[in-house]
Amino acid sequence: MAILRLGDEAPNFIAQTTEGEINFHNWLGDNWGILFSHPADYTPVCTTELGTVAKYTNEFDKRNVKVAALSVDGLESHHGWIKDINETQNTTVNFPIIADENKKVSELYDMIHPNADSKLTVRSVFIIGPDKKIKLTITYPASTGRNFDELLRVIDSLQLTAYHKVATPANWNQGEDCVIAPSVTNEEIPNLFPKGHKEIKPYLRMTPQPNLD
């Protein structure tokens, strides 16, 4: 089984979901994507996670991000679980949940870790760019729910740094100052960063976020 690393192409697959059959790459199109797995249907932490994702629809839409979840249970189970999610989380699930009973996708993305559980997926997260390359991976244990505010923050950083020669410092949030990439020379800074910059050390140069007015 291949280990997926940052910069690798996200494997394509065709699968049945709660919103019909999808070809993953075609479904993503030119969007960014999040693929995240769940140990099983009708699990308490996952119920809160899927409800949270549904409530964040507008935030994902603003960032041109499509979201797909995965569980090793089947479509009938998924549809029943969605009713529970909508009821208990006061929302409407409006993204596909992949049925992966044969564990084809789970194995393709190395979502089953035998030392954690030989049958169920761990809580994997893959953020995928429009070029279908993997930009970020995070793996949570089954007992710990994901922080979707953090995933939005990471997407903001990934989208910013993909198109501007900056990096984002620790605890960065949208609208805060950024680090100028080391590859940028001091002579290039005025043209690239007309808002100005502050040199803290020769290797640590800060500038206002460049893609904001």
Fold blueprint:
Layout: E1 14-17, E2 20-23, H1 24-28, E3 32-38, H2 44-55, H3 57-62, E4 65-71, H4 75-89, E5 97-99, H5 104-108, E6 123-128, E7 134-140, H6 148-163, E8 166-167, E9 178-180, H7 189-192, E10 198-201, E11 204-207
Parallel strand pairs: 3-4, 4-5
Antiparallel strand pairs: 1-2, 3-6, 6-7, 8-9, 9-11, 10-11
Characteristics:
single chain; 213 residues; alpha+beta; four-stranded antiparallel beta sheet; five-stranded mixed beta sheet
Architecture overview:
The chain has helices spanning 24-28, 44-55, 57-62, 75-89, 104-108, 148-163, 189-192; strands spanning 14-17, 20-23, 32-38, 65-71, 97-99, 123-128, 134-140, 166-167, 178-180, 198-201, 204-207. It is of the alpha+beta class. The strands form 3 sheets. Strands 5-4-3-6-7 form a 5-stranded mixed β-sheet. Strands 8-9-11-10 form a 4-stranded antiparallel β-sheet, covered by helices on one side. A two-stranded antiparallel sheet has the order 1-2. Helix 2 packs across helix 4.
